[in-house]
Specification:
Elements (H helix, E strand, L loop, with lengths): L4 H37 L5 H5 L4 H31 L2
Helix pairs in contact: 1-3
């Protein structure tokens, strides 16, 4: 079954809208996670990690949150590829 030109245009528009919405959701999520990581790290950043000021647990949580965020970035990259291929 062949799609008419106008139908292809509508599918392309839906794909673009889906990708745009996904980007907006991701930007919000990533911003929240980065703010949380910054909060955990505190003012002094990684220096506190080695001073033994009792912030080791916070720094460990921040490291884990960064790894989690990296895995979500990889997932989002795959989701965008999937949307581009399947909705095209």
């Amino acid at each position: 079954m062949r799609l008419s030109v106008s139908h292809k245009g509508n599918m392309s528009t839906r794909k673009n809208e889906t990708l745009r919405a996904l980007k907006e959701i991701w930007d919000f999520y990533e911003g929240e996670k980065l703010a949380y990581i910054e909060f955990l790290r505190g003012e002094h950043g990684k220096e506190d990690y080695f001073t033994g000021d009792g912030s080791k647990q916070r720094q460990k949580e921040a490291d884990e949150a960064e790894m989690y965020l990296d895995s979500k970035r990889a997932f989002m990259k795959q989701a965008k590829k999937y949307i581009r291929k399947c909705v095209a």
